[in-house]
Amino acid sequence: MAYKLLTPGPLTTSDTVKQAMMIDHCTWDNDYKTITLDIRKRLLALAGVDGTDYTVVLMQGSGSFGVEAVLSSEIGPEDHLLICSNGAYGKRMVQMSERLGLKYTVYEVGDCEIPKASAIKKYLEHQEDITAIAMVHSETTSGILNELEEIAALAKENNQLFIVDAMSSFGGITIDVKALDIDFLISSSNKCIQGVPGFSFIIGKKAEIEQRKDYARSLSLDIYGQFKEMDKDGKWRFTSPTHTVLAFHQALIELEEEGGIKNRNLRYLANNQLLRTKMSDLGFEMVVKEHQGPFITSFYYPKSFPFEFDSFYYYLKERGFVIYPGKISELECFRIGNIGEIYPEDIEELIRIIAEYKEMLAA
Ligand SMILES: *Cc1c(COP(=O)(O)O)cnc(C)c1O
């Protein structure tokens, strides 16, 4: 049975995005290469940059492959990376850095707190050899939205290489990559652009990619190698996920038709506001009290009625909605995403079903 995904990706896509995949394309044909070039051009525009200083590298694999591509290609033997972490995705960057043998330091706060620029400043003062800062923008673990502007300003002031995992935020909120002077921003095909899974993309400074071209520790994830090939005529180095690419191109057109990031953000905000208000009316308490982002929300298991996650999950699924288990360790919670082809009327419908579930349990 088909259902709507209230998850942070893969998420519900439009019928027209799905239909775009009904073509089997070869990878070396001009029509196809043109699509890759157009995707890269559109992503630059969404990031508020032009092709003079920045470029877009598409990378096969899920979002994590894109993050690992950046860490393994751009952090050199002389670098010391400071990783800001307040959830599973910050921790994943730590795991990658450990595996890659990078020199790194972790600045970790709790899942419901945000990394502070003031604390980062102290790290930079005490460890003068820190050359790079990496952070997650929207921490999907909790739904918290980290303070990108302040940390970006600090990185700029100190001339640090600045890496942002904007996986679950890019396309859903305006990120002025140029003004923030971000060196590498990573996102993927199946989050706020509303495509299907299959590749990640890296918006990065050309000069840094050129300068750091010898650092790559992996052939497949080599950003410079991929950039050089792709920049010629739009051909990916190795087999690209053709159907995903076609779907993503359609998704970019639909983002523009919606009125760009500005309008998509308004829709996500409206979904999220409605969800939070109505869930709170039903007695569900939000886990994140401050800095809640507009993409996904964590709720505690309610105590006022006999709640059991699995039965709740299947009850909703049978009625057309799939939600997400919680990811914050030691907290009993679940998550509801509101991104993708989801509108306030879907949230209304979800709330109606949750109210019905609650009544059933109370009876
Ligand atoms: C989705 C996501 C990723 C990538 O996860 P994959 O499972 O590899 O696609 C990374 N960071 C954040 C913040 C995410 O939301």
Bound molecules: pyridoxal-5'-phosphate
Radius of gyration: 21 Å
CATH names the topology of the largest domain as: Aspartate Aminotransferase, domain 2
Helix content: 40-55%
CATH architecture grouping of the largest domain: 3-Layer(aba) Sandwich
Report the biggest beta sheet as strand number plus sense, adding barrel if it closes. 7 strands, mixed
Helix vs. strand class: alpha/beta
Question: What is the H/E order?
Answer: EHHEHEHEHEEEHEHEEHHHHEHEEEH
Low-confidence stretches: none
- CATH class membership of the largest domain: Alpha Beta
In percent, how much strand structure appears in the residues? Answer: 15-25%
E-strand count: 14
InterPro entries: Aminotrans_V_dom, NH2EtPonate_pyrv_transaminase, PyrdxlP-dep_Trfase, PyrdxlP-dep_Trfase_major, PyrdxlP-dep_Trfase_small, SP_NH2Trfase/AEP_transaminase
EC number: 2.6.1.37
Keywords: Aminotransferase, Pyridoxal phosphate, Pyruvate, Transferase
Domain Aminotransferase class V: 52-303
